[in-house]
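#onboarding

Welcome to the new folks! Below is a worked example of what a typical request in this channel looks like: someone posts a single protein sequence, and someone else replies with the predicted structure as tokens. Don't worry about understanding the tokens yet, we'll cover that in week two.

Example request:
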Amino acid sequence: MIPNGATIWARKTTTSDIFSRPDKWFKIWFYMICCANHKDNGAFKRGQCHLTYESIMLVTYATKSQVDHCVRYLKKNGMLATRKATRGFIVTIVNYDLYQNFDNYKSDTDGEMKAKQKRNRSETEAKQKRQDKQECKNDKNVKNDKKVKKFVRPTVQQLEEYSKSISYDLDGQYFIDKYDGNGWMAGKTKMQDWKAVVRTWKKNNFNTGKTNGNNRSRSPRLNEQDWGGEELIES
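Example response:
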């Protein structure tokens, strides 16, 4: 058995642009392909590996300048992607799955190969767009959930205890009957803060339901901040 496995090289490599570049460049490219994982593991995915300029220079006998120029060329031409890492960088061979799979060599037609490459790119881009859209939607939902303040319908006791605490004589049942009748709505908006409404009633000396001639029989003028919310909850 031959140790360390093998890599696949297409015959058309000899007509590719990298093959006509400086000799060291192809040697660097060949070394990177050989170093890439052939399957996912705990550290790296298939087609990835960790490298340093020093390790590449040691094996290929290339200078640092040659390595740097080669890496820049490979990234510019969409053959390679890199990410900084501790003591080096992580290399991703962009089309590793395409070229390191014998199933993709069953046809000698360049048109089919190009069509498959295009499909792979389109599927990858579409998948990424769906993920980005879903993440954006999730973020928006989380923000909206944080903003929602649910309205809890007060009890008669709560209304009368609160009105008493602000020196206001309010018939709690009258208040509840009034707003039960319209679904605790003001126009198209649901009430958010019933305490604020009670304070507004007091301020405007609105009819509290008590038989007191001093109370006026008119509707209170409520500020916009007294209303809002999403859902009415029976207490």
